[in-house]
Design brief:
two-stranded antiparallel ribbon; 4-stranded antiparallel sheet; alpha+beta; 3 helices
Length: 173
């Protein structure tokens, strides 16, 4: 379960992904014989493991599925654990104060302080770029709203107040 904890942590901190159990490293599907009781036990272990992460991992960020191999004589399954990318700007610890990443299927970590610093800068950059994208989308609406306010101010003959735009640092009337 330690590897699951590390990979789940790495996927949350990277770009998300899927873990398969019952498949070897060469891609050969082996499957596991799993009863309904085993399914419940696996679900509980995953919930408890991810429940120890900091910050708390929402159940929306992961899903476990049992994929039947449809063998008429045995109940063989492959377990699929899908992990979504974590919340924007968050860095998740695995419950043991360790942080991991996954890059091209390789587990990296636990990260050293300098690597954590680089990860923090990357997450910050992603959040800034996301804000810039949102600003590109919202700017036309903000401009329309400002124009409407100006027209209303002129029709009511109220004096216009000079305000400083927080995002651009420019003055607008």
């Amino acid at each position: 379960m330690n590897k699951v904890k590390q990979f789940a942590n790495g996927l949350l901190n990277s770009h998300g992904g899927v873990l398969y159990f019952g498949v070897d490293y060469k891609g050969t599907v082996l499957g596991e014989k799993i009863s309904r009781k085993d399914e419940d036990a696996y679900r509980l272990v995953v919930d408890r493991t991810l429940g120890k992460f900091e910050p708390l991992v929402s159940t929306q960020h992961y899903r476990i599925a049992f994929l039947s191999l449809e063998d008429p004589y045995y109940n063989y399954y492959v377990i699929e654990l899908k992990i979504s990318v974590g919340e924007l700007g968050e860095i998740y610890e695995n419950g043991e104060a360790n942080v991991f990443l996954v890059d091209d299927g390789l587990l990296l970590g636990p990260l050293y302080p300098q690597e954590l610093k680089e990860l923090i800068m990357l997450k910050y950059k992603e959040s800034i770029e996301g804000a810039e994208e949102a600003n590109k989308f919202l700017t036309p609406y903000l401009h329309t709203a400002r124009e409407t306010c100006k027209r209303k101010a002129l029709t009511k003959r109220r004096p216009l107040v000079c305000i400083q735009e927080e995002t651009t640092g420019k003055f607008e009337f």
